[in-house]
UniProtKB/TrEMBL annotation:
Protein name: Helix-turn-helix domain-containing protein
Keywords for the protein's UniProt record, in alphabetical order: DNA-binding
Chain ranges of the HTH cro/C1-type domain: 7-61
InterPro entries: Cro/C1-type_HTH, Lambda_DNA-bd_dom_sf
Pfam family, one: HTH_3
Keyword RNA-binding: no
Classification lineage: Bacteria, Bacillati, Bacillota, Bacilli, Bacillales
Organism domain of life: Bacteria
Biological source species: Niallia hominis
Length: 129
């Protein structure tokens, strides 16, 4: 997916109009339309604003990556997380329902996932007997 397609996809997924996005970016609806048709290219500041607005990386926005890689989502005030932890978060975000449960009630959700995993491991062991 290239930049015009990705921008249109993100805008439509967010269920917002070209006018609404243009207002948020401080550009006209015609500019947003031009970006989505490939007839115009945003300047670097607008490109960064678009990535921030949709909470994606510029590489994702440009179609250079298929992973959204939300920008600052992987840093905390206490510590930076490892690449492995960031990749895990990125994979979990592909499943919004589970991800939202993990965010809202991590202790309960992790326990439920552990119980499911334990059950599956036990079933696997029973089949090998």
């Amino acid at each position: 997916m290239n930049f015009p397609e990705r921008l249109r996809y993100l805008r439509k997924s967010a269920n917002i109009s070209q006018q609404t996005l243009g207002d948020a970016m401080n550009v006209t609806k015609v500019s947003i339309s031009g970006y989505e048709t490939g007839n115009r290219k945003p300047d670097t500041d607008t490109l960064q604003k678009l990535a921030d607005y949709f909470d994606v990386s510029i590489d994702y926005l440009l179609g250079r990556s298929e992973t959204k890689e939300a920008r600052a989502s992987y840093q905390t005030a206490e510590k930076e997380i490892t690449i492995e932890e960031a990749l895990l978060l990125s994979q979990l975000q592909k499943y919004p329902s589970m991800y939202n449960h993990l965010i809202t009630d991590p202790e309960k959700t992790v326990l439920q996932l552990y119980r499911l995993w334990s059950f599956l491991e036990e079933e696997k062991q029973n089949k090998n007997l």
